[in-house]
Structures are given as C-alpha cells and as structure tokens.
Specification:
Elements (H helix, E strand, L loop, with lengths): L3 E11 L2 E7 L5 E4 L6 H9 L23 E10 L2 E10 L5 E4 L2 E2 L5 H4 L2 E4 L11 H15 L3 H20 L5 H34 L8 E7 L8 H10 L1 H7 L9 E7 L4 E2 L5 H23 L4 E4 L8 H14 L3 E5 L13 E8 L2 E4 L7
Parallel strand pairs: 3-13, 3-14, 8-12, 12-13
Antiparallel strand pairs: 1-2, 1-4, 4-5, 5-6, 6-7, 9-10, 10-11, 14-15
Helix pairs in contact: 3-5, 4-5, 5-6, 5-8, 8-9
Length: 371
C-alpha cells in the first residue's frame, strides 16, 4: 500500500510558534512536553492540510501569533501516493487563509484529492453526552474524509438555509421568494444525507472486518423532526409543505441540520452516552481506526492521524494496542502527551520530539527515535 506522510513541516508566526521546523521520515511522530508548550498547535497546523477549518475550527486571524498578529505561514512536503507535493498555507494580517500546491494557487477542496487527515482531540471525549451539533460535525468530518466535495454541499445548504430562515423570521409568505432557495437546499441537503449514510456504511464495514482490541460501535443516523426525505424532489416538497410550521417556528425544521448520530457499544448493547468515560474514549478510538482503515482502502493510503493527549482514559493494554494498530496500518500518526514515557511501547517505531515553552514562545527540538 502507498504511504501518506508529512515529511517536512515549517511553522512561522503560527499560534505560540515564532518559528519551528520538523523533519520526518514517515514514521509516527510523538510530541511530548508540558501543558501549554504548543504541542496541540503543531497538530492544528497539520490539520490544515485537509479541507475545512482545522481541528479547532478557528478563523485565520485566530491562528496568528500574538501579540504581533503579522499573519502566519505553514509549509510542508507531503508524500502522497508515490508523489511529492509542496504545500503552502498562509494568511496575511486581516486576510483569509490561502493555499498553494506545487507553486499554484488552489482551492481548499484540492487538499482532499491528495491527502486525508483524521483527528481525535480531548474536546471530543464528551461527544456522546453533549449536544447533537458536535456529533454532526464529527459525522461530517468522517464523510469529508471519503468525499471532499461534501464540504461544498454543506456550504451551499447552509447559505441557502440562512436566507430561507431570514425570510421566515421576517414572516414573508410569498412562495416565489422561497422557491429558488428551497431548490438549492433540496439538492444539497439530499446529497449531504446520502453522503453521510454512505460514510457510516463504510465505517461499519471496516469495523466488522477488523480484529481489534477496541470495542465496535454501532452508529445510527436519526432526525429530530421526522425522517429526512431521500430524494431532492421529496425534500423540496417537504420544505414547501412545511412552510406554515416553519413560519411559526421562525426557522427550518426539516433537513440534514436536524440530524443526530447515535452510538451503541455493540457487544454490550449499551448506548454510548451511558458508557463509562474509558469506554466512551475506546469507542471513539475504534471509530477513528475504522475510518482510517476504510480510507486506506478507498484512497490507497492510510490517512494522517492526529491524536492529542491520546493516552488519556486509555489503560496500558489499550494504549499498547493502539500503537500496534497504528503501526500495522502504516499510518503516520502525530501524537501528543506530557511525557515521553507514555510512548515507550513505540520504541524504535516512532520519532520523538520535545516541545517546550520559554517566555511565551514554543520551542521544537530535533526529532529522534524514542529510547
């Protein structure tokens, strides 16, 4: 199988990093150091090598180093499917994020054609017990990993829905005002729903086919307000029929924005939200690994994996199993932890990099193999 790896990463005025450079040989990368040193900032930089707003969902200006706020730049050499690509991502002060691939300006969706990136961060540990919005984002990241055009469909839907909601709040009743917007919503919404279902089917297949130390999660896509129409025509008809109720509510009540993702610990038949903290973490790890296996089949190479504070809530045996599965998959995983001892089971199989902080500036040491 082909390899996907970031072999060189350079940060300039990005978050806490004034300047930083990492050279990698394609093996997993361990970033260790005290809390607040800037480890997660490195992961965020790597997450920008995929379409979207990155693992923190931050604006371009929020990523600039303070207090200078001069703009920032990330460059990388990406080895993907037997090809090498030079990636430049940057934002000027007050400007939007920009991208060049091999010296040519490109839209973000282009990144999805040459790379896949998945992540698991501590904020996701509460996925199953908080609101549906976070679970929809999680599902859409899974979907985007298979379908880079999913982001475009989502943006089209959200823009048209915002306009329709504005009409609803203004109590506009003329059908002609709604027709074009509902047509856009119907086409994009049906595509979003179909892509989500396909993505869940691929993850389920990847879980079922794997021998793993992590529990299988059964996933179900549900709607908070009735069933989501399967076709664009049926969804357009449902939107038109639901205008009276939507006018009363002041918002659109039917659509992919009302979806939720339910998870169940398969072997126990227990809802994920009712599982222990450790079980919930293990279910998330299982889904990320299954997603990665499915991508490896579809894309031809396993994705980059970003695992922030991955050892938290995993016992020693599962931690060891995670490292073994990452290496067996052949994925370049970028992992963070407060101490190098958390990654002893990766001895000889990963590069270890210490990240420290001095006077508000992050420092990156040279990469080495863990002892």
């Amino acid at each position: 199988m082909s390899k996907l790896a970031l072999t060189q990463l350079t940060l300039s005025h990005f978050r806490s990093h004034h300047h930083g450079r990492i050279e990698s040989d394609g093996r997993p990368v361990v970033l260790y150091g005290p809390n607040g040193a800037g480890k997660t900032n490195v992961l965020e930089a790597v997450s920008l090598f995929s379409p979207g707003r990155g693992l923190r969902r931050a604006s371009a200006q929020e990523m600039a180093r303070r207090p200078e706020a001069l703009g920032w730049k990330i460059t990388g050499i990406l080895r993907s499917l037997h090809q090498m690509h030079e990636i430049e991502i940057w934002a000027e002060a007050g400007g939007a994020r920009q991208l060049r691939i091999d010296g040519k300006t490109a839209p973000q969706v282009t990144l999805g054609r040459i790379a896949r990136v998945l992540w698991l961060v501590p904020a996701m540990d509460r996925l199953w017990i908080e609101g549906a919005e976070g679970r929809r984002r999680f599902l859409d990241r899974i979907t985007l990993s298979f379908r880079p055009d999913h982001a475009e469909a989502s943006l089209t839907f959200e823009k048209a829905m915002r306009e329709r909601n504005r009409l609803l709040k203004d109590q506009q009743r003329d059908a002609h005002w709604y027709g074009a917007l509902e047509a856009q919503m119907a086409t994009a919404g049906a595509a979003i729903h179909a892509a989500r279902k396909q993505a869940l089917a691929r993850v389920a297949e990847a879980q079922a086919d794997a021998q793993t130390a992590f529990p299988q999660a059964d996933l179900e896509l549900v709607q908070s307000e009735g069933d989501m129409p399967q076709s664009a025509e049926d969804y357009a008809a449902a939107l038109a029929e639901g205008r009276r109720q939507d006018l009363y509510a002041g918002r659109t009540l039917i659509g992919p924005h009302r979806a939720d993702l339910l998870g169940t610990y398969s072997a126990k038949g227990v809802a994920a939200r009712d599982c222990s903290t450790g079980e919930q973490k293990a279910l998330l790890v299982s889904l990320i690994l299954a997603n990665a296996r499915a991508i490896a089949r579809d894309f031809g190479a396993p994705p980059l994996l970003l695992l922030d504070e991955v050892a938290a809530h995993l016992d020693e045996s599962r931690r060891r199993a995670l490292y073994d599965e990452i290496c067996a998959l052949g994925a370049q995983a970028w992992m963070t932890g407060t101490g190098a001892e958390q990654f002893e089971d990766l001895a000889g199989r990963a590069q270890s990099i210490e990240v420290t902080e001095e006077a508000g500036v992050s420092k990156i040491s040279a990469a080495q193999s863990p002892a």
